[in-house]
Write a structure and sequence with these properties.
Layout (H helix, E strand, L loop, with lengths): L2 H9 L4 H32 L5 H11 L2 H17 L7 H15 L1 H21 L3 H26 L6 H14 L2 H17 L5 H5 L2 H16 L1 H9 L1
Helix pairs in contact: 2-3, 2-4, 2-11, 3-6, 4-5, 4-7, 4-11, 6-7, 7-8, 8-12, 9-11
Keywords: Membrane, Transmembrane, Transmembrane helix
Organism: Glycomyces rhizosphaerae
Protein name: DUF624 domain-containing protein
Length: 233
C-alpha cells in the first residue's frame, strides 16, 4: 500500500484513527454516566461528618442507583464488544439500559440494599476490629459477585422468578470459578487505580467502562458466557 493509501486508511472517517477516537469516547461516556449514578453516594459520603441512623439509611438509599448504573455500564460495553467498536448513542443506550435494569432487577437492588444496611450497621458498631472488617469485606465481595453474575446472565436473556435467576447466576459462577475471581480482581484493581496520586482522578473517568469491558471479556475467555447460554437454553 502506498503512503497516500496508508494515510487515507488512517484518517478516513471510518479509518483506524476515527475508530480509536470513537472507542475512547465510548469508554469516557459510559464511565461518566456511571459516575453520575454514583454521585449521590459520593456527595453524601463527603458531606456526612458523623455516623448516625439517618446517615446510614441515607447512605444506602443514595447508593441504590449504582446497581442499575453498573447494569447499564455492562450493557453499554457489551454493545461495544458485540458491534466491534463505537455502537453510537451512548446517552440514549445508557438511559434505556438503566431504566431496564432498574425495573427488571428491582428485587436484586432491594436485596442488596438490605444487605448493605446490615453491613453498614456492623461496620459502624464493630468496624474497629480486624475480624469485623474482614467479615464485612467478605460479605461485600460475595454480594458484588452475585450482583455481577445476575447482571451478566440478565444481559444474556435469562428471565424468570428472582430465586430462579439468582440460582442460575450462582450456578454459572460456581461452575466457572475463574469468572468471579476475575471480577474481584478487576474491581480491586480499579479501586486501587483511583487511589494513585495525580492520575487517579483522571483514570476514574475511564475506569467504570474499562472494568465492565474487562469483566465481559473475562466472561468470554473463561467460558462463563458459554455456560450461561447452556443453562438458559
Amino acid at each position: 500500500m502506498s503512503a497516500t493509501g496508508t494515510q487515507r486508511a488512517l484518517f478516513a472517517y471510518d479509518g483506524r484513527l476515527a475508530r480509536a477516537l470513537l472507542a475512547v469516547f465510548q469508554f469516557f461516556a459510559v464511565s461518566a454516566l456511571f459516575l453520575l449514578t454514583a454521585l449521590p453516594a459520593l456527595v453524601l459520603d463527603q458531606a456526612s461528618g458523623s455516623v448516625s441512623h439517618v446517615a446510614i439509611w441515607l447512605g444506602v438509599l443514595a447508593a441504590l442507583p449504582i446497581g442499575p448504573g453498573a447494569y447499564a455500564a455492562l450493557s453499554g460495553m457489551r454493545g461495544f464488544i458485540a458491534e466491534r467498536g463505537y455502537p453510537g448513542s451512548p446517552l440514549r443506550r445508557f438511559g434505556k439500559a438503566f431504566a431496564e435494569g432498574t425495573v427488571r432487577l428491582r428485587w436484586l437492588w432491594a436485596g442488596g440494599a438490605g444487605i448493605g444496611l446490615l453491613l453498614a450497621y456492623n461496620a459502624a458498631l464493630y468496624g474497629g476490629g480486624d475480624g469485623a472488617f474482614l467479615a464485612v469485606s467478605a460479605v461485600g465481595a460475595l454480594v458484588a459477585v452475585a450482583a455481577i453474575a445476575v447482571c451478566c446472565i440478565a444481559l444474556q436473556g435469562a428471565s424468570g422468578r428472582p430465586l430462579e435467576v439468582l440460582t442460575l447466576a450462582l450456578h454459572a459462577a460456581t461452575a466457572r470459578p475463574l469468572a468471579p475471581a476475575a471480577w474481584l480482581a478487576v474491581l480491586v484493581t480499579a479501586l486501587a487505580a483511583t487511589q494513585l496520586p495525580i492520575f487517579g482522578t483522571n483514570l476514574a473517568l475511564f475506569l467504570p467502562a474499562a472494568s465492565a469491558w474487562a469483566i465481559l471479556t473475562a466472561n468470554r475467555l473463561v467460558g462463563f458466557d458459554r455456560k450461561t447460554a447452556d443453562l438458559i437454553g
